[in-house]
Amino acid sequence: MEEKKSGDTPQRPARSSDRSLDRDILALAVPALGALVAEPLFVLVDSAVVGHLGTAELAGLSVGSTLLTTVVGLCVFLAYATTAAVARRLGAGKQREALQSGIDGMWLALGLGVVLAVGLAATAPWAASLLGADGEVAQHATTYLRTSAPGLPGMLLVLASTGVLRGLQDTRTPLWVASGGAVTNAGLNVLLVYGAGLGIAGSGLGTAVTQLTMGAVLTVVVVRGARRTGAALRPHRGGIWANARHGGPLIVRTLSLRAAILLTVAVAGGLGEVTLAAYQVVNSVWGFTAFALDALAVAAQALVGHGLGAHDVPRTRAVLRRTLTWGVGAGAVLGVLVAASGWWFALLFTHDPDVRASIAVGMAVCGLLLPLAGWVFVLDGVLIGAGDGPFLAWAGVATFVVYVPVALAVGAWAPHGVLGSLWLWFGFAGVFMAARAVTTGWRARGTRWMVTGA
């Protein structure tokens, strides 16, 4: 009996440590989820308001918002790189340096936002034509882009300041600001589109005003924290350059993901309108589940950066293990819900029985593979938190190269309709995500990514 007791003793602190770490993970992930879900509401509200203006206006909004969100999406490194840098310095006990790094990242966001705003406004007609818009649709897309483009500095400041706060292990403040922004955006859109009679221009202007306001509020929060620690508020060329240099590999990673998505859309289009229509619906579900799983990746970024900054390798390994457990588990739960609800969910979108069947099959494949996605998203967050951007860039290119022949084979040989949806999603959610799982999993098993210190 004594041997059994002595063997049991070390397990209790381990279980207690796991529970404590779980609380830390959920304390970061749950508010992060709320903030992540609040952002897509901007596009949904814009669509609902503009949709009542007419078909051409809604089509123009679709083109304009796609271009705008693509530009912002390519700048997500402002949040990721800043989170990793701030968390690492905070873990090392260098709070002033942590906030100084964050301030430099926000200066980079502001400058980049101004440049992109001017560029997008100037090239709006050409950019809209790239997505096939012409005539009245192109005019509305151009109007939306030119009225929403001034909000780009605010959008990028939201990314960078959110990264700072995540690095400081504060995900609640971004949640409240994002929630308030979603409500404000809805009110402004109705007021400007219908009350002021501005049409689609009112939607773009409302989005710009809301994003600039959100950026200003989050900037005030970060600046107050910086002043308390004595961090300088003026820009530092070296710090700005360091943020840009660390963000470069993450841009490559994001480009590889965007390229894979665009290739998948192109393949879906080649498989006929039934497969393409089903893809739009299934992809919206996939995107929503990705937000839920990305919340765990956000927690992993903050906790891994903090652990490595504190030279605490055992805790970093524990964070890796527990967030992976949560990621796979959450993916399994979501997967069951997605797979089981496919047919009923399809009824909300179409009366076409072929499209319904294609949606149901696509959601069943996605549901089956969501645990794998949970694994991938968490590992992505772990390596981003460790500042392992160069590896993620090379891995992103490699996985895209693996996916290209698979996607092309689906486009060439898969039949149209239900079976087309099956093979399309098996290629993307299966092969592409498996390639990402292999590369990031191989990296996480080693120690080269675990560089400690500030």
UniProtKB/TrEMBL annotation:
Q: Where in the cell is it found?
A: Cell membrane
Highest taxon above the source species: Bacteria
- InterPro entries per the UniProt record, alphabetical: DinF-like, MATE_fam, MdtK-like
Q: Name one Pfam family in it.
A: MatE
Regions that span the bilayer: 25-45, 65-87, 107-128, 148-168, 175-194, 200-223, 255-279, 285-304, 324-345, 357-379, 391-414, 420-438
* An example Gene Ontology CC term for this record: plasma membrane
Q: What membrane topology is given?
A: Multi-pass membrane protein
Any one GO MF term held by the record is: xenobiotic transmembrane transporter activity
Family membership noted in the UniProt record: Belongs to the multi antimicrobial extrusion (MATE) (TC 2.A.66.1) family.
Q: State the name under which the record lists this protein.
A: Putative MATE family efflux protein
